Amino acid sequence: MPGAPGILSNTRAMPHARSNIATLELEPKLAELGARSDAHLSTRMGDEGRSGHPGSPTTSVITKTKPRTKRPNMYRVLILNDDYTPMEFVVHVLEKFFNMDVEAATKVMLHVHHHGIGECGIFTYEIAETKVTQVMDFARKHQHPLQCVMEKK
């Protein structure tokens, strides 16, 4: 509809009119993106006043930053030595809850026996907490005072 009021029919006569329309159309979207933390609005250098008119629109670039995934904190699961829990039970616990073979479990058990503490594995918080609970419950069920703890690595 050429000549209809409110519709620009000749963009050559008004070279900045097209960018005004684009700016007006983008303003709600820019406001929406500006509210989000993953979008940034930046103005290109040297665009201000390019058409020579004061208050003319500037060219804006919308960039989305990809959020970087932070690696989770890791926790060591440790078994503590006591004078009452049988060595065979400790080996059984290491095999059952930490998926160790007999040789690896025996090596860890002997380390606990000689040094008073031994590392069973390194896990994320939730997994480490679950392993500690499982070991402690299993030891209580079998009436052994075996202690298992976790510490931040």
TrEMBL record:
Self-association and partners: Binds to the N-terminal domain of the chaperone ClpA.
Top-level taxon: Bacteria
Region Disordered: start-end pairs: 42-67
One Gene Ontology term from the biological process aspect of the record: protein catabolic process
Residues annotated as domain Adaptor protein ClpS core: 70-148
Keywords of this entry: Hydrolase, Protease
UniProt entry tagged with the keyword Protease: yes
InterPro entries: ClpS, ClpS_core, Ribosomal_bL12_C/ClpS-like
Function: Involved in the modulation of the specificity of the ClpAP-mediated ATP-dependent protein degradation.
GO molecular function: peptidase activity
Keyword Iron: no
Family: Belongs to the ClpS family.
Pfam families for the chain: ClpS
Provenance organism: Rhodopseudomonas faecalis
Biased composition (Basic and acidic residues): 42-51
Protein name (database record): ATP-dependent Clp protease adapter protein ClpS
